[in-house]
Amino acid sequence: MQFLCKEYQDGNPRVRSLVTETRIHLVPSLNPDGYELAREAGSELGNWALGHWTEEGYDLFENFPDLASALWAAEERKLVPHKFPNHHIPIPEHYLTEDATVAVETRAIMAWMDKNPFVLGANLQGGEKLVSYPFDTARPVSETPAAAARPPDDYEDDDPELQETPDHAIFRWLAISYASAHLTMTETFRGGCHTQDMTNAMGIVQGAKWHPRTGSLNDFSYLHTNCLELSIYLGCDKFPHESELQQEWENNKESLLTFMEQVHRGIKGLVTDQQGEPIANATIVVGGINHNIKTASSGDYWRILNPGEYRVLARAEGYNPSVKTCSVFYDIGATQCNFVLSRSNWKRIREIMAMNGNRPIRRIVPGRPMTPRERMRLRMRL
Question: What ranges does the record give for the region Disordered, renumbered to this chain (predicted)?
């Protein structure tokens, strides 16, 4: 925060561009009670678990709704996407009750994410040095579509329980953008902090391959909002000495800037009607990626995409869909891709049906004279 403010005032063009063109939200601590415990013990007397949980005993990173399991169960029953969405999956009702086992911090973050149309996010943690991306939940083998088709003599190293997100390539790009700019994150020749290197010397790993868990912030963010969320583990020491913080900042400074700049990669635009009025909650579908997003209250949207050419569709209830081809380039700067939707006749048909009590409207046979009663009904409908 100090760096952004100082460099902005000093006229740093990179920082000025980032601050003026990006809404940046910073949360100093998601678990302030746990931080206080870790601070009191310090680096020598503390351990990796001290400060991990809240005062009420919740692990915040496993306290969010498990929407991934719900999605996979719906896929097994062939309900996706017609009866069960592949995006913006609602929070289960039992999770919102007052007596639900949900931390107050978790409730606050969920409300915050529903209020703001976040596009890219990262939660900073310690105890390892790598970048982890969704899915964090491991899909049961019996529910994995590819598992049934795999022959018994197939001894590939791939874990059959891993389920990649539809945005797997984009998540890897985002993870690499951070790890590759870090001064030491890709130096994995000494192994990981606790075990062997799980990142194949790249400093990135899918969460389910490394540390499977359900109810993570990353999975929840991806399946409930438009936001692509990753976990960044800054180092082996979860509470480094004050004298080490300057070097830790130097290790991560370029990575933080590069990561935030990735929010401007992909496509963005407005979805409006023919009168120029914005259409909120319109759905943006990118061909080849089975995960949709929605427009914000002002009709605007942002979709992070890797470089390439995409067929993009915008649709909204009561409107005819619109399709465009949008190109994403390697340079930072999202491609503008606006949509203008025309009103659909189906909306008017439903209004007429409602006026008729949702009963079928009698077809008028040409050549047959109408009775006075039929003529009166037709006049009323018109």
Answer: 142-162
Based on the fold, state whether residues 272 and 237 are members of the same structural domain: no
For the segment 62-80, what is each residue's pLDDT rounded down to a tens digit? Answer: 999 999 999 999 999 999 8
Residue 90 DSSP one-character state: P
Tens of pLDDT along 295-322?
999 999 999 999 999 999 999 998 999 9
Per the structure, the count of domains in the chain is: 2
Residue 197 CB coordination number (10 Å): 16
- CA-to-CA separations, 199 to 68, 139, 263, in angstroms, rounded: 23, 20, 24
Clarify whether residues 77 and 102 are in a common domain.
yes
Q: DSSP string covering 180-195, please? A: TTSSSTT--TT--SSS
Residue 147 in domain: no
Answer yes or no: is 375 within a domain.
Answer: no
Instruction: Name the residue range of residue 178's domain.
Output: 31-141+163-263
Q: Is residue 221 one of the residues assigned to a domain? A: yes
What pTM does this model have?
A: 0.84
Instruction: Specify whether 200 is located in the same domain as 244.
Output: yes
Tell me the chain's radius of gyration from C-alpha atoms.
26
Question: Which ranges in the chain belong to alpha helices (H)?
Answer: 2-9, 13-21, 32-45, 67-76, 104-115, 145-149, 168-179, 207-210, 217-224, 245-261, 345-355, 372-381
End-to-end CA distance of the chain: 63
Whether residue 157 is predicted with pLDDT greater than 70 in this model: the reply is no
Whether the pLDDT of residue 158 is over 60: the answer is no
Both 78 and 182 in one domain: the answer is yes
Neighbours of 232 (CB within 10 A): 23
Percent of the chain with pLDDT over 70: 88
Query: Do 335 and 313 fall within a single domain?
Result: yes
- Pick from 209, 231, 263: which residue ends a domain? 263
The two three-digit tokens of residue 241, written as one number: 């000495």
The answer to whether position 51 is within a domain reads yes
Whether the bond into 135 is cis, omega within 30 of 0: yes
Beta bridge partners of 269: 301
**Residue 194: both structure tokens together:** 């606790």
Q: How far apart (Å, rounded) are the C-alpha atoms in residues 33 and 212?
A: 25
Average pLDDT score over residue span 32-41: 85
